[in-house]
Amino acid sequence: MQSTSPQAFDGKAFVRTLTTSPGVYRYFDADGELLYVGKASNLKKRVGSYFLKPRLEPRIAAMISQIARCETTVTRTEGEALLLESQLIKSLKPRYNIMLRDDKSYPYIYLSGGEDYPRLAFHRGARNMPGRYFGPYPSTFAVRESLGLMQKLFKVRQCEDSYFRNRSRPCLQYQIGRCTAPCVGLVTKDDYAGDVRHAEMFLEGRSSAVIDELAAAMEQASVKLDFERAAALRDQVAALRQLQAQHHVQGASADMDVIACRIESGMACVSVLFFRDGISLGTRDFFPRLPLDAEPADVLAQFVAQYYLDRPVPRELILGEELPEQALLAEVLTEQSGHTVELKSSVRGERARFLQMAERNAQASLTQRLASRQTLGTRFEDLQKLLELAEPPRRIECFDISHTRGELTVASCVVFGPEGPEKSHYRRFNIGGITPGDDYAAMHQALTRRFRKVAEGEGARPDVLLIDGGGGQVAQALDVLKELGVTGIHVIGVAKGPARRAGEETLILVDQGREIHPGPTSPALHLVAAVRDESHRFAISGHRKRREKARERSVLEDVPGVGSRRRTALLKTFGGLPGVEAAGVEELMRVKGIDRGLAERIYDALHG
What is the pTM for the complete model shown? Predict the structure, then answer.
């Protein structure tokens, strides 16, 4: 239910003390928990937007109601603020920020350093050993596949140092032609160093330069009549050319990532297609933590900042949405990487095809994730167990109330089934004839209007009825059902926890005289919270529409006899409603179609 409690933090007073410099701001609740981190080119203007706007998104309004203090850090430039914001979000994990969640570090190919015979290896974790790290790669499979290719093409060892130092004869990799056996001295240091250099060039995306060098070396071997070496180089060049032909993607930039985002049912998926040297390295999907009301562009902006600001970035990022402050992000990435980075959201040709591929992949991965362990079916079954029902509910309805200081109250009813939200069954009720701000009366009226049809044998009957509120609200629902003679519906109140944190809700079963605390890991509570939040969103949006319509409505519309033509004529004649209000009866009569009686009615309506 929309909160009307007074705000504990005096945001307006705090804003007056702020500087206009760029920087980062942080919001904390009364317990000291970090709620949100944001950056600003003008701290005074940006922070002020939270406390001076008359209307805010539900997510922002919910956050502001919890703010107990705000801290700021001034930076020299907006770019520095962007970097600091990204670092703080990743390290502190604020509740209301979009957070890139990935509990695994990214895989790399590691080339050891400080050795006569360096090794190539799979690496994940801190990059603090001497040597070079190539990546990050989109997946473990991509790294393993690349290492397999390196063994075939350049024969650089991949064995552990302990194994390498204790060999007395070549291993199986030498016998199958995937290593030159440096462990037993079958290759010189110079030749091995050449193989390592070519491997580095290949991993840097310079495969064409490697081919050119090998081709030149093959010609020199032929001139020297070293036909055995020339044949080996010929085969290596042929293998590299074949690899390029197999893996090269027509239309792909030498260095490019294609990024798309899809959001559904409170979950987001960001899918990235990686291209290096015109070769596709594969795809990786990310599922960032998503607060309410986030848009794909917001998710992509946070993803790009959190993912690329501390790792190698390609020269081109193709994005499914135009980002807010896209130019600033490109500037910061360019400065961080040491080369020009372009962010493009309007593309054609092959790039548009790659973007469509990323979008399809994001949608498919999101659909698969939603249908995995935490499916609606699982949640419905868990709710059945929690409420001790004979079978899983087939239809859940939830009611919520929204108003602003009692003005223009709207009640919402949303419906969920085993397949998810059934939006065609959603309903809103404009509440009237009650004491402003009386939520109990508003709930009673909405429930009466909804279940009167059920009592008359019309409309579907829910198995579970959720009421956003405590025992008083639930009692209203029970009274309505009793008055109408409707039975067989389980009525559940959803009350927020003491700290109003998600996962701490209490389920109230008044008719059974008990309360349930499922806890944040309960699939049943996840379902209840999703239905409750959807009802809350639907109620707030309905209230806002009703309020905006009321504000846009002209007083003249309530005067009998004044239709759209006469209203237009009045407004045009007097230059707007203030001019009509200032006119007397005689002046009003000069407008075509308005006689004395109608002019007097108009005058009385405008002057009370």
Answer: 0.50
